Amino acid sequence: MNYDFDVVIIGAGPVGSTIAFYLVQNDLNVAMVEKKTKIGYPLQCAGILSKHIFEYNELPDEIILNTVKGAFLHSKNHILDIITDENVAYVIDRANYDQFLSRRAIQNGVKLISKKAIDVDIEKGITYLSDERSISSKVIVGCDGFKSVVSKNIGNDQQNFKASQMLVSINDEDMNNFRKSNRKTDDYVDMCLYENAIPGFLWMIPLQKNNYRVGLFSNDSHRQQNTIITDFLNENFEYEIIEKYKGLIPIFNNKNRLVKNRAILIGDAASQIKPTTGGGLLIAFDNCKIANKYITDAVKKDNINLLEGYQKEFNKKYLKELNYQSKIQKTFKLLNDDDLDYLFEKAKQNDCENIISVYGDMDNQSEVVKEMKKRGLMFKIMPKFIYKKIVNIF
Predict the structure, then answer these.
(1) Where would you find the membrane-spanning parts of this chain (predicted)?
(2) Which terminus of the chain has fewer CB atoms gathered within 10 Å of its CB, N or C?
(3) Collapsing DSSP states into helix, strand and coil, what is residue 384?
């Protein structure tokens, strides 16, 4: 059979554009199908990446809005200060970053098809477009987000949390009062573990000039999330809302298939999301590198079965960590605001701030929990009446 392309990628967001760029470097004929008229809009993420980003992808200086050195973790009545001497994360202009990656792919020979992919045939390698055309390819890569048409055709269970976010102006005095600190306000993020946001949390991410992205992900509707954020702001700050955003965050499911027939999934479409934070861009970028090997071999050796190696390598590298984070998330589901206050108070008394500062990592939260278990701190800081349930989870 003659194919129109070696590879068709559904979605020209950061993940689709990255895998497209890698594949075209291997002399493959690659197309991206993108439904948005303006890539990167509307904004649907918090826009913060760990310091490890440069291990996985380019990040131009002009895309970086701010750098952060640590975090303030809040329960209703207690605060943990997680402070480091070095930059641990970058706050980025996510819309411009998406556009940068898309331009990079196109400038290197990837064809952009500005249409919506309404369906795919993963056995024959056919992508059906919104203008009633169809295009064929040896491999179809699903990078089409939380409602992936490719994932649906593979037969995966697609579930998600809702997420809401506001761009808000807050003065330094109010931020310092909220944190009970006089540290430089834009050097730190805030994570609020409140009962009404679990299994997610509420975040405050500093940009520039007293502007913050304030948001949360949870099981609530967008309307209810808007109320939660507004009530939080009213209780703690004088503020001005500049913009509002909303979106969906896929829920990690270790039973989902990443490969079937001629189809392969990366990123949100594959639910490659950290359960504890809802982030997943660095995991997706790493999986672009992994998938690149198997897609290129499958095309050049004309053996579609080689795609299966991607699923195996992903499982080996990430499944244990993501399953561990799912257990952490299940643990927090057991806690109400009083329990969280107890946990934070005990954590502060047992030097957990220092442990988190040393062992904490945005991408591998399990290391902190393992260190606390090793030191026998889990029993000391957790409310005793739920300790048996936590033991059963882990």
Answers:
(1) none
(2) N
(3) helix
Residues in the chain: 394
Q: Is the pTM for the entire model greater than 0.70?
A: yes
**Whole-number Å distance between alpha carbons of 294 and 250:** 25
Distance, in Å, from the CA atom of 189 to the CA atom of 199, rounded to the nearest integer, reads 19
Residue 217 CA to residue 290 CA, distance in Å, equals: 29
| Closest to 185 in 3D by CA, of 176, 196, 194, 195 | 176
3-state per-residue secondary structure call for 268-335: HHHCCCCCCCCCCHHHHHHHHHHHHHHHHHHHHCCCHHHHHHHHHHHHHHHHHHHHHHHHHHHHHHCC
CB distance 29 to 5 below 8 Å: yes
Report residue 188 as tokens: 């730190």
Q: What is the DSSP code (8-state) at residue 109?
A: T
Question: Hey, what are 245's tokens?
Answer: 């955003």
Task: Summarize pLDDT for 287-345 with one digit per residue, the tens.
Answer: 999 999 999 999 999 999 999 999 999 999 999 999 989 988 888 888 999 999 998 99
